Amino acid sequence: MSLDAEGYGFPEHEVSLARLMDDIRVLSPTGVERVASGWDEHVGTKGLQAFHDAEKAATHAIEQADRGPAWDLVRSSLFGLTESGDALVSWKAEHGEIGHKAERAALAAALGLVAGNLITKEHRATLMRPMAEALPWLLSA
Length: 141
What we know:
This protein is mainly α. It has one domain. The chain has helices at 17-26, 29-42, 48-64, 68-82, 89-93, 97-115, 121-128. α3 packs across α7 (121-128). It is globular, with a radius of gyration of 14 Å. The two termini are 20 Å apart.
């Protein structure tokens, strides 16, 4: 298997849920902070409407394509990594406002990946941009 530009064991072009989940598992507290900062920069208050529009489009597309069960599974898996009693140490370290912003960004990126080509590239980028502050490969799609 080749390595991407960041040195991970994924092909440079591969943008997938498995890769996102693997990267979330190894994200450091600093990475969580970077994602939260990305949330503030790209969504915050000025980008909130565009984010909600993208979120709504992705959710609708997922429902129409019968991908709801897949989205539910991804969402519960992410919750287990970031919020549950068994949450990863890096997410526990950043629990609170920073952790919640980063968690929203992770959920948005996953939503964009589940919706995939069912939504516009602009909507996908809006959903993935905050998480891409720590995982730039997300915007290579």
